[in-house]
Amino acid sequence: MSKxxxxxxxxxxxxxxxxxxxxxxxxxGGLIVLLAFVPVTLRDRLAVAIANRIFNLKALKKRRAIADxxxxxxxxxxxxxxxxxxxxxxxxIFTQLILGAGEMSVRSKRYLQNRIVVDGEEHIKAILxxxxxxxxxxxxxxxxxxxxxxxxxxxxxxxxxFKKTGDPIVDWAMAKQRTRFGxxxxxxxxxxxxxxxxxxxxxxCIYLPDEDFGPEASLMTPLFETTKATLPVLGKMTKLSGxxxxxxxxxxxxxxxxxxxxxxxxxxxxxxxxxxxxTLRMNQEVExxxxxxxxxxxxTLKLFRTVEGSDQPRY
Length: 315
What we know:
Layout: H1 3-6, H2 23-35, H3 40-54, H4 61-74, H5 80-99, H6 103-106, H7 109-114, E1 116-119, H8 121-129, E2 134-137, H9 145-152, E3 158-162, H10 168-178, E4 184-187, H11 192-200, E5 204-207, E6 219-223, E7 226-230, H12 234-241, E8 244-253, E9 258-263, H13 275-292
Parallel strand pairs: 1-9, 2-5, 2-8, 3-4, 3-5
Antiparallel strand pairs: 6-7, 8-9
Helix pairs in contact: 3-5, 11-12
């Protein structure tokens, strides 16, 4: 076992999780597994009905406010009814993906492959045919886990970072699901160097670029009509791993009832010797991807928590 593989996220099943206080988690998990076998068209209609019912719940008010703030910052010309319509569609897609989350744990490889359609698959094929190292630039959207499934079920191992949820049962289930067909996941404290080593060893790397980790390690970089605290690490990762950067966006097509991967051409002339320029180019690629289907994006994340020139967070 290589050094980077020894740093992979691993959690063993514990009999303590069978205690009554955890039964609620197991009940929800069992329901999600059962829903994986419900016909997709029926399940998606149910999800839309649920989403419309819960959209205005007081418990979700804070998340709606975060999403509304993010949309105002990125799209200042978008009016309030347009933002609400986008957020409602976003909630519907989220609910459809949640009700279908068990599929990746229990459905067959062929079934899962048939759940995914790809727009721009030739860009993936060009990299795989040339046996090149690659990093997927993947903005946060609800079906992101299907990207790893796409590659791993076709025999190409992937690596990425994993953020614990705080519930060990959920962490265990998610880790099992994400590595069911191969690949490796690392905890964030393993660091970027571990991802670089794995990429150099031939793993495809999934890099999600859009979380706000604060001003200390970030550059304030334009994104849409605002600026965002952005980690300036993709250029370094690319240079040290000898990888190509392939921008991909994962969405859910509610009419086809399938996950849709939007693949843009690999970034040319990247990285440069200018960290700020490379960080800007990365955000420009993120913009292009999100613009293909804005309603898919996780607008409820605290994307713009850091305010330029201020010590106070935005949210």
